[in-house]
Amino acid sequence: MNAACLSAAPSRASWHRIRQTLRLGLRSLWLHRLRSLLTVLGIVCGVCSVIAMLAIGEGASYEAQEQIKNLGSQNIILRSVKPPEDRKVSERATQSFVLEYGLTHTDLRRIRATIPGVTVIVPARVIRKYAWNLTRRVDCEVVGTVPWYPEIRSHTVAVGRFFTDLDMQARANVCVVEAELVPLLFPLELPLGRQIRIGSRYYRVIGVMAPQVERRSRESEPAAVNPAATPQAERPRIYIPLETARIRYGETLIRQRSGTLEAERVALHEVIVQVHRLEEVTPVAESIRPLLEHGHDKRDFEIVVPWQLLRRAERTKQLFNVVLGSIAAISLLVGGIGIMNIMLASVTERTREIGIRRALGARRRDIVLQFLVETVLLSASGGLLGILLGAAIPFAVTQWAGMKTIITWWSPALAFGISALVGVVFGLYPALRAARMDPVEALRHE
Question: In 3-state terms, what secondary structure has residue 84?
Fold first, then answer.
């Protein structure tokens, strides 16, 4: 019984000493409220910047990765690219009056016949046209493709259906529109079953694509049919059967520029090649490149491998987080220097108080603990306020600027931990300096 009481007495005494030290630290900070608030602001800004910058960076990285995932990790995308004008191309264009380049149906047959591991091939043509509904007109992209295009590109039909093989064989005048096009052409009615005019032809709307959370970039249209007058990513798409597009619009595109006519023949603007297994993506892409180079006398194509882009985006995300975190950590460093400056000034101001406490029996570790408690209280309170403000800024950015932001669970914990560590590190030197004071000299201080 006596042994238990003796062991409990020191613990109660130490707990009482800690409570007294906390009370003394809070009282000291409250006596200098304005100075404490200004000191805390440095930590608040540092913690806030860490959370906000990491959230914005995480959101931007997420958008980029989602756009790449929409392309398909097992897909290889081949695109037609207008070659740079050289002497041979200029002479050929002058003789035939038509510049011919890009992917062809022969390329598709060669890939299917010679490259193992290819399971699905999706060709597509992209033509820029105006879509009309009575007096409403929208500048859009008409995509001629195959019925299995949505499955390969991870797109879904929200209302109605996509066109089928029967529509392809019949070369039917049917179309599927993107959700962004509906309020522009059909603001007061449902689009299903309605007719829209593209050029001189009318097409019946049989489906509406589901809206995508992240608007993708229009990667399939080459520069030749993508004038810079309208931003490429802002034009909605209309999907029609590939055979219908070939019969209605042909393979020759004629544009008028500066009083002259330019004619270009492109069989296919985009071809998506899907392989069976993910590990076959890179070998198949490396096999396709020499095959296309052998069949083309000029570099009028490009190969995009979304899987490689996704891995590159993940590495970029890690580097981006490190850079943003380092920049934001500088703010915490500045806040820590401010804490050290204030605590050194506080030690000078409270020299006589330190001497009195030492004369009354306070040990050096009691003085160190007193000043460390004050610095940790400053940094911890600044960390909590910074977390609240850091969580509010990404929300405001998302609401007002429309940018996606993501606050991960570890960013507030990391920011708060660093702020507490800053308080300990930058408060240790002032605390040790106060503890090393000679009590007699401290009592003489005026």
Answer: coil
This prediction has a pTM of 0.60
Q: What is the pLDDT of residues 383-442, one digit of tens each?
A: 888 888 888 888 888 888 778 888 888 888 878 887 888 778 888 878 777 777 777 666
For residues 262 and 254, the answer to whether their CB atoms sit within 8 Å is yes
Which pair of structure tokens corresponds to residue 415? Answer: 């920011």
Instruction: Give percent of the chain with pLDDT exceeding 70.
Output: 82
- The better pLDDT of the pair 230, 329 is held by 329
DSSP 429: H
> Any idea of the CA torsion for 195, 198, 202, 206, to the nearest 10 degrees?
-50
Average pLDDT over residues 281-310: 84
For 363, the token pair is: 């040990």
Q: Are strands 252-257 and 174-177 parallel, antiparallel or unpaired?
A: unpaired
Beta strands in 35-189 (DSSP E): 75-80, 99-100, 118-133, 136-145, 157-160, 174-177
Q: Is 343 exposed, middle or buried (0-12, 13-18, 19+ CB in 10 A)?
A: buried
Identify whether the C-beta of residue 353 lies closer than 8 Å to the C-beta of residue 439: no
Q: Pick from 167, 238, 165: which is nearest to 207 by CA?
A: 238
| Domain residue limits, the chain | 20-65+313-444, 82-299
Looking up tokens 């090649």 gives 273
**pLDDT (average), residues 131-137:** 91
Residue 29's identity, in one-letter code, is: L
3-state secondary structure of 217: coil
CB 152 within 8 A of CB 72: yes
Whole-angstrom distance, CA of residue 125 vs CA of residue 222: 10
DSSP string, 225-275: G--TTS-GGG--EEEEEHHHHHHHH-SEEEEEETTEEEEEE-SBSEEEEEE
Residue type, 90: S
What's the pLDDT at 145? 94
Whether pLDDT at 181 is above 80: yes
The confidence score (pLDDT) of residue 197 equals 94
**What is the secondary structure of 6-58 as a DSSP string?**
HHHHHHHHHHHHHHHHHHHHHHHHHHTHHHHHHHHHHHHHHHHHHHHHHHHHH
pLDDT at 220 exceeding the cut of 60: no
With beta carbons less than 8 A apart as the criterion, state whether 120 and 104 touch: no
Tell me the sheet residues that pair with 203: 196
Q: Give the Cα separation of 357 and 364 in Å (integer).
A: 10
DSSP-based three-state secondary structure for 334: helix
pLDDT value for 32: 73
